[in-house]
């Protein structure tokens, strides 16, 4: 038999062992010497408390069937097989129960279930939660700044309602003195082979910190043309695009992390390299733009000042005097 079996919560579990020519089989839900068998097979007859209540059965190959598994069924089972009066062997089998990954829910208090969000710096902790899960879920917070990537200090706690688990992890937001934007990532892993890793990325901006800007001469683009503003050529790890709304205020119009982006203002898109794309540029999108980006070791900015210019329609040429003569000739 394999030493470990994985079973999805709520489904039947099969410990697929094969015991040829066995005469007597005894399955236990414990490895204690004082345990009593939950089900046994002797001379073709099955018995035991687990067989009577329908929870367990012995398969044709001698393996164990566990019906409608719960997390309480996760344990080490022992089987004793008596082949003859001189031949007996014992095998221990570990059964691991895991939750359905399609129904588990990963969320963060400031993002909900969105996989990517951007927020201003808050005084309250970031709390990541995995619900409808099992005991093998591990949550971590990772913090990315100009000084590198590291696990964030965090507090873990959880609960069990008798059927499924909820797991939480919280961390306090801290921003380096030289950074305006940092990234926090909640990662959910399950200690089960071939199960997916899930993440929620939270971009945090300390809006109390100023960024350096300079006066720029405007760059003109024709109205209704597509405009592309490059943030950097240095393969940014993450960035934020902002637009100036008045003398001191900027609004976030889009943000980007490792090729994934979101926009919060209509009329804009972000390219795969983090460039800001403006489709059919209009005078309403004129103004100053700034990109705050980080390539993993330093935060920097890129500015633009853009304005629109209207291209007049092509006029129809005419010669004064000729047009009047043509009109009189037409009337005659």
Automatic annotation (TrEMBL):
Q: Where is the Immunoglobulin domain?
A: 2-106, 216-307
Q: Which InterPro entries match?
A: Ig-like_dom_sf, Ig-like_fold, Ig_sub
Descriptive protein name:
Immunoglobulin domain-containing protein
